[in-house]
Design a protein that fits this description.
By secondary structure, the chain is of the alpha+beta class. It has helices spanning 2-13, 24-39, 43-52, 68-75, 80-89, 109-116, 119-129, 310-322, 335-345, 354-378, and strands at 21-23, 56-60, 63-66, 98-99, 104-105, 140-144, 158-163, 168-176, 182-189, 197-202, 207-209, 214-221, 227-239, 246-257, 283-285, 385-389, 392-396, 412-415, 423-432, 436-440. The two termini are 50 Å apart. Keywords: ATP-binding, Helicase, Hydrolase, Nucleotide-binding.
Length: 444
C-alpha cells in the first residue's frame, strides 16, 4: 500500500489534485516520467489497483475522482498548508463593498479603509504572502489544558482531536517565555473559512505579560464529517523597549475522527496453492474409531418455530378459499392445470413445474457440493495439525463455524505428511469444536 500512498502524496505535493480531482492526462504524464520505474507496471494497471484499493472512486471523462476520506487520511497536515493558502488566495479580493478574505461586508468607504488598515486583515495577507515573515523565536509557549502529553518546545505541534457530530471545545494556555515584558495586542484566527470552528481569546486588550504570564485561547468546533487540517493562529504583540510589532505564528493540527478514521485497506487477495488430489493407488492407513463415553444422557435441541411470512399466509388463505381441493391429500385428475392454477396465485416461477422440480433441485445441490469440494481443495491445510497426545490431533477446518463443510463425529479425514506421498493416514473425527475437529489416528 505504501507505493500507492507515496504516489498520491507526490500528486498532492505537486498540486496535481484539486478538490479531490485530477486531470488524467497530467497524472499519466507525471507517472510515466517520475513513478513508472518504482511502480513496475503500466499506468492503466496502476490506476486499476488504486481503484481496487478504494483510493480512487471513479474515472470519468479524463478526470480521476479520489476518495475524500482516504485523501484526508493520506495528506493529513502535509496537504493542509497548501490547501489553506489556495482557498484563501482565491478569496482575497478586496473591494469597496466586501473583503472575501475576511468574510466581511462594508456599509461605507470609511469601514472599508478601517478594515484594510486593521491588524487582522494585514496578518492574513502576510500569511498568504510568506510565512517566513512571522517571528519563529520561542517567545510564547502553547499548552493544551487538561493533558500532560504536550511538548513544550516551539516546533512541537498541538493536536486537537474532535468527534464527528459532537459539540467540542478545547482550551489552550499561551504562556510568555520572553525575558522582557510583552504587550498583547491581538490574537488572529488566520483562516475564517474553516467551517465549524471558532477561536475566542480571554485577555484584556493591550494586556502586558511578564515572563511566565499567560492568557487563554478557547477553540470550539462542530463538524458533520471527518476532517484533518491545520488551524493557524497568530499572536500579535509588542516587546517592551521595541517599537515594531511581533507576529508569532502557531499552527494547531485539528483532526475530526469518524468510523472511517482508522480504516486501512487490507492486503490484496492471494490465491492459495492448489493441493494435489490423492491418487487412487494411495495406501490408506485406517484410523481408530474413538470409544464413546458410556452415558444414558442425551441432549436435544428443539427447532424454533418460524411463522410463515404474512404475505404468503394471505395468498395461501385466498387460494384455499377459492380452491378447497388444494388441501386434499390426493391430486386432481388434471394435475398439470391444477398446479399451474395455484402456481399463478402464489406467484411461483412459471418454469418450475412438477416434472422438472427434482432435476432442478438435484442440479442445484450438485453445483453447491462441487463448490464445497473446490473450496476445501483450495484451502491450504499445511501445518494446520496440532498434536494433542497419544494418537489424537486437532485439525483446523475452513468454514466449520458456518457448517461448511459439515463434518460430524465418525467422519473420516485423510492426512499426508507430504503432498507427493503415496501413503495417507485416516483420522476419525471424535469431537467437533468451533474451528477445528479432533482426529484419532492408528496407534501403530
Amino acid at each position: 500500500m505504501s507505493a500507492y500512498e507515496d504516489f498520491i502524496r507526490e500528486l498532492l505535493r505537486n498540486n496535481l489534485i484539486t478538490e479531490y480531482q485530477s486531470d488524467q492526462g497530467a497524472v499519466q504524464k507525471y507517472f510515466n516520467g517520475n513513478f513508472k520505474q518504482k511502480a513496475n507496471c503500466s499506468f492503466e494497471k496502476f490506476c486499476s489497483k488504486l481503484w481496487k484499493n478504494w483510493y480512487v472512486i471513479e474515472f470519468k471523462k479524463n478526470v480521476i475522482y479520489f476518495d475524500e476520506k482516504w485523501l484526508d487520511y493520506i495528506s493529513k497536515t502535509k496537504k493542509a498548508q497548501n490547501t489553506l493558502k489556495k482557498e484563501m488566495s482565491s478569496k482575497q479580493k478586496v473591494s469597496g463593498e466586501s473583503c472575501q478574505l475576511c468574510l466581511l461586508k462594508f456599509s461605507s468607504e470609511n469601514d472599508f479603509q478601517d478594515h484594510v488598515n486593521s491588524i487582522k486583515h494585514k496578518v492574513r495577507e502576510l500569511y498568504l504572502n510568506n510565512t517566513e515573515n512571522f517571528d519563529h523565536r520561542e517567545l510564547i509557549k502553547f499548552e493544551l489544558m487538561g493533558t500532560n502529553n504536550v511538548k513544550d518546545n516551539h516546533n512541537a505541534s498541538i493536536k486537537l482531536k474532535f468527534e464527528r457530530k459532537v459539540h467540542a471545545h478545547a482550551t489552550i494556555k499561551a504562556i510568555s517565555i520572553c525575558e522582557n515584558n510583552i504587550e498583547i495586542i491581538e490574537v488572529v484566527q488566520v483562516n475564517p473559512h474553516n467551517k465549524g470552528i471558532t477561536v475566542n481569546t480571554k485577555f484584556e486588550k493591550e494586556k502586558t505579560l511578564r515572563h511566565g504570564g499567560n492568557f487563554r485561547i478557547l477553540i470550539k468546533g462542530y463538524f458533520e464529517n471527518s476532517a484533518s487540517f491545520k488551524l493557524p493562529i497568530v499572536v500579535v504583540f509588542r516587546i517592551a523597549a521595541e517599537e515594531e510589532m511581533t507576529y508569532f505564528l502557531k499552527e494547531i493540527i485539528v483532526e475530526v475522527s469518524s468510523e472511517f478514521s482508522s480504516l486501512k485497506a487490507g492486503e490484496p487477495y492471494k490465491k492459495l496453492k492448489k493441493v494435489t488430489l490423492p491418487r487412487k493407488n494411495d495406501e490408506i492407513i485406517l484410523g481408530e474409531i474413538p470409544v464413546g463415553h458410556a452415558s444414558s444422557y442425551k441432549e436435544t435441541y428443539p427447532l424454533k418455530q418460524y411463522p410463515i411470512p404474512t404475505g404468503l399466509q394471505i395468498r395461501l388463505r385466498d387460494l384455499i378459499r377459492s380452491y378447497p381441493l388444494f388441501v386434499e391429500k390426493y391430486a386432481p385428475e388434471n394435475a398439470d392445470s391444477f398446479y399451474n392454477m395455484f402456481a399463478t396465485v402464489l406467484n411461483l416461477h412459471t418454469s418450475l413445474i412438477e416434472a422438472n422440480y427434482f432435476d432442478l433441485l438435484d442440479a442445484l445441490l450438485s453445483i453447491e457440493e462441487n463448490q464445497i469440494m473446490v473450496d476445501v481443495r483450495d484451502y491450504d491445510t499445511m501445518s494446520k495439525l496440532t498434536f494433542i497426545g497419544g494418537n489424537t490431533y486437532d485439525l483446523e477446518v475452513p468454514g466449520l463455524a458456518e457448517a461448511r463443510p459439515s463434518l460430524v463425529v465418525h467422519d473420516a479425514v485423510y492426512v499426508k505428511e507430504n503432498v507427493a506421498d503415496s501413503k495417507k493416514f485416516q483420522g476419525i473425527v471424535s469431537s467437533v469444536f468451533e474451528k477445528s475437529v479432533r482426529l484419532s489416528f492408528n496407534r501403530k
